[in-house]
Design brief:
single chain; 331 residues; alpha/beta; Rossmann fold; Alpha-Beta Plaits; 6-stranded mixed β-sheet; 33% helix; 24% strand; binds adenosine-5'-triphosphate
Length: 331
């Protein structure tokens, strides 16, 4: 009986039972443009990945390669232990790439039924995915009458047909209003919580911070960061310091000497509470100077950086990638 009870509530995704996607040494050029320059990536199951990067960094090219839509010039790619684009890989991958193409004069539901039939899936599966994306009530309307957000949700519904273990979503929030973005956030979070592996590209860094377990940052065709969101936000080099130090007169005079930052006395109730933003290289000297001045440090912590802050620090360089002016951050 205990066993049966255990089956009711799904277990959390098994850790690292083999990679869902393996990419090694992948390069791709379009004429003179080197879109990807030796990309390595391993996607572990049950995680939601955010693929980030400035305009023209190579995100879409990478996602297209995983779907077999673009063939790499060099390197190895395996998707669900199969060749990308092969029937075995595609059968188990749901994808939303750019604006989804549906037949305009058919209803959303009929569009999905056509896809479900082609994939040998029962009709009930269409109801299920319409429910998941919150389109059940509007499923009977002609696709031509759908708003952008509804069209996008229908695209996700199509990707969910057959519950594929891998979802690849290229800018799923593209063109959505804030309400649509919030809906998509909930949807993707739920998919992640249910154990799906999701790879999504996005320019909405605030969203990625909330939705994703891991991020892969691509810049000028190279993976420049691949880590958990938490680890990326905890990277050294950013984020202010918060400290509790006394006596406050001595603390003030030492803190005032550092990095031109005015120490902010945070604590009304606690005058030992300070917030400073020294250059990372100045931190050891600052701590030493406080101690030398007879200041007791009761607590010292670094504030977590926003994903957006780390992203800009990582991708900051003089040239823009393709003249489109970099990242249109709306988060
Ligand atoms: N089919 C193609 N033909 C020619 N050039 C291409 C093609 N696809 C992509 N590129 C170029 O390759 C580079 C990478 O493009 P890609 O679309 O992968 O970037 P991205 O990171 O998805 O950018 P964005 O954030 O703007 O969508 C760009 O310079 C782009 O112009």
């Amino acid at each position: 009986m205990g066993m049966q009870m255990a089956q009711v509530k799904p277990e959390p995704p098994a850790p690292r039972s083999g990679a869902v996607v393996r990419v090694s040494g992948v390069s791709k050029s379009f004429g003179p443009v080197e879109a990807l320059r030796g990309v390595d990536l391993e996607v572990v199951p049950g995680q939601v990945y955010g693929v980030l990067g400035p305009n023209g960094a190579g995100k879409s090219t990478l996602l297209r390669i995983l779907l077999g839509l673009v063939r790499p010039d060099a390197g190895e790619v395996r998707v669900l232990d199969a060749r990308p684009g092969s029937p075995e890989a595609l059968r188990r991958t749901g994808a939303l790439i750019e604006t989804p193409a549906f037949v305009p004069h058919l209803s959303g539901r009929t569009n999905l039924e056509v896809l479900a039939r082609a994939a040998g899936l029962p009709r009930a599966e269409v109801d299920r995915v319409l429910d998941v994306v919150g389109l059940r009530d509007r499923g009977g309307d002609r696709f031509a009458g759908y708003s952008l957000g509804m069209g996008q949700r229908l695209g996700v519904a199509a990707a969910l047909l057959g519950s594929p273990p891998l979802l690849i979503l290229d800018e799923p929030t593209n063109g959505l209003d804030p309400e649509g973005v919030a809906g998509m956030r909930t949807l993707i979070r739920d998919l992640g919580a249910a154990g799906s592996t999701v790879l999504l590209s996005s320019h909405l860094l605030g969203e990625v911070q909330q939705i994703c377990d891991r991020v892969v940052v691509i810049d000028r065709g190279l993976v420049i960061a691949d880590d958990t969101v938490t680890a990326i936000r905890n990277r050294p080099g950013g984020g202010a310091l918060e400290l509790w130090a006394a006596p406050s007169a001595q603390a003030r005079s030492v803190l005032a000497q550092y990095a031109g930052t005015e120490p902010v006395e945070v604590g009304e109730p606690d005058e030992r509470h300070w917030r400073v933003a020294p250059a990372p290289d100045d931190i050891p000297g600052l701590v030493r100077a406080l101690v030398t001045a007879g200041v007791d440090i009761h607590e010292l912590r670094r504030e977590k950086q926003s994903l957006e802050g780390v992203f800009f620090a990582l991708t900051e360089h003089d040239d823009t990638n393709d003249g489109t002016g970099g990242l249109g951050v709306t988060a």
